[in-house]
């Protein structure tokens, strides 16, 4: 008698499992842009004749933009493209 109920139980469990499954599609997108300012100086004995001068990089500041929302902290903008920019990093001194 137990063997007769087994196919019925398996069929019921399979039907219950198949009806409880569903597909969920999430369509969430996030627009991000990293804006930055960097102080750079080109070093060479003669900048006009040397094809690749040495580039020295100093201070950098950056801001991560998300969905056009103003980021926390001191920022400038938004510009005509909706991007927020960081404040300028400290200018390097002659001694640096």
Automatic annotation (TrEMBL):
<feature type="signal peptide">
    <location>
        <begin position="1"/>
        <end position="26"/>
    </location>
</feature>
<feature type="region of interest" description="Disordered">
    <location>
        <begin position="69"/>
        <end position="96"/>
    </location>
</feature>
<protein>
    <recommendedName>
        <fullName>Lipoprotein</fullName>
    </recommendedName>
</protein>
<feature type="compositionally biased region" description="Pro residues">
    <location>
        <begin position="87"/>
        <end position="96"/>
    </location>
</feature>
<keyword id="KW-0732">Signal</keyword>
């Amino acid at each position: 008698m137990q063997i007769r109920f087994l196919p019925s139980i398996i069929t019921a469990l399979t039907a219950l499992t198949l009806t409880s499954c569903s597909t969920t599609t999430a369509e969430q997108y996030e627009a991000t842009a990293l804006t930055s300012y960097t102080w750079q100086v080109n070093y060479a004995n003669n900048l006009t004749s040397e094809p690749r001068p040495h580039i020295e990089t100093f201070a950098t500041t950056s801001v991560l933009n998300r969905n056009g929302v103003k980021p926390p902290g001191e920022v400038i903008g938004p510009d005509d493209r909706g991007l927020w920019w960081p404040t300028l990093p400290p200018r390097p001194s002659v001694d640096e």
